[in-house]
TrEMBL record:
This is Asparagine--tRNA ligase. GO terms for biological process: asparaginyl-tRNA aminoacylation. Keywords: Aminoacyl-tRNA synthetase, ATP-binding, Cytoplasm, Ligase, Nucleotide-binding, Protein biosynthesis. It is found in: Cytoplasm. Its EC number is 6.1.1.22. Belongs to the class-II aminoacyl-tRNA synthetase family. Residues 132-422 form the Aminoacyl-transfer RNA synthetases class-II family profile domain. The lineage of its organism: Bacteria, Thermotogati, Thermotogota, Thermotogae, Petrotogales. InterPro entries: Aa-tRNA-synt_II (IPR004364), aa-tRNA-synth_II (IPR006195), aa-tRNA-synth_II/BPL/LPL (IPR045864), Asn-tRNA-ligase (IPR004522), Asp/Asn-tRNA-synth_IIb (IPR002312), NA-bd_OB-fold (IPR012340), NA-bd_OB_tRNA (IPR004365).
Amino acid sequence: MEWIYIKDMKKHIGEKVEFRGWLWNKRVSGKIGFLQLRDGTGFVQGVVEKSTLGEEKYKEVKKLKMESSLIVRGTVVEDQRSPVGFELHIDEVEIVHNPSEDYPISKKEHGIDFLMEHRHLWLRSRRQFHILKVRHEIIKAIREFYNNEGFVLIDTPIFTGSIGESAGNTFEIDYFDYGKVYLAQTGQLYLEAAAMALGKVYNLGPTFRAEKSKTRRHLIEFWMNEAEVAYYTHEDNMRLQENLVSYVVKKVLENASENLVALGRDISKLEKIEAPFPRITYTEAIKLLNKKGSDIQWGEDLGADDETLISEEFDKPVIIEKYPKSVKAFYMQPDPENPDVVLCDDMIAPEGYGEIIGASERIWQEDVLIERLKENNLPVEEYQWYLDLRKFGSVPHSGFGLGIERTVAWICGLKHIREAIPFARTLYRVYP
Ligand code: ATP
Ligand code: MG
Ligand code: MG
Ligand code: MG
């Protein structure tokens, strides 16, 4: 008999199959029992009867604890009442492992601290299954997009000899005789070097920021996709970002809408996400916020609440461009029409999910870059290799960073970012 995954069982209606997986819940009475089964590809209800299994086996099944592991054999039977359209009528049960203890996550409601403490087990729940599937589809779509567009994947390093862009939130590590090095806050500077070698490049990897504030949008370790393109202007850059985000949403709707529906996501909101996206300047954003009752002043950075207020005005991601130079990183190209602002943009997700992308055209003139490093009190000598990129074949170039977990939280409709990554590292949690 063939071992078939739940996701493929629909093609085997009426056939006898073997299932290998786990029991996540059960209801067993005198003669008939309903086993809620999962195998990592989906969930299905299994039906057992005392008359088929025999007295002895039925008794054993009755004693199975939640999260027992089982191999069962039976017939796939069409059932319109089932959310997957079929059931498994079981005639053989092989018990691989029946836990001796009750499963810790067995109540309807558990507090978030308890769940995070048991994240290694919590991942087995339906909800987490659906989130992880969507995350997988998002990352798959990102890679596909870049492959289609002719980008080369460049893996940027995690240990970095210089502070990425701001000293405030870096993790310092002792690195042999070298002394202090830092965990990457971004791979951008390295990606810029790669763009001068290969033209269109991207990365996808973890980044680390010692974020001291507790928000529902910040993780300490998060995954970022960055892209960098030689000869791209600020305009080209914005177009690339909206094309990427539209592509990702489209692919997730194609490949994972069942998962989104199971999460209670309003799909119609995602169906509207198509490029081009609305664009406003930072200055317009400040005016809009003031009109909506905020007392934010020109020159202040937008906070999470400001981003939420702005997102209420749009049903697509909104691109806010040209922030004041003083609130942005040292490498951003000043706007030739107004040197107080830089050729940057943030993409703000709809429905209050905040900034998903930070982007800019990069300074490509060596002297301007040195001046900006000094203004930001960054040690120029540690950026020699980066300055070399402006000494040899320097060209205007642009790029951005997309937060993977922010994107997952938005597309899944999660209230908090901690569920958007398998094992979240937050201010007070590195276990499990
Ligand atoms: P924020 O303003 O929300 O703190 P940022 O401007 O510091 O974000 P960038 O340096 O622009 O972030 O990083 C690029 C992207 O990485 C952001 O647009 C966001 O999607 C994501 N990101 C940044 N910090 C975090 C974090 N601590 N946890 C999860 N994602 C993050
Ligand atoms: Mg930040
Ligand atoms: Mg920001
Ligand atoms: Mg940013």
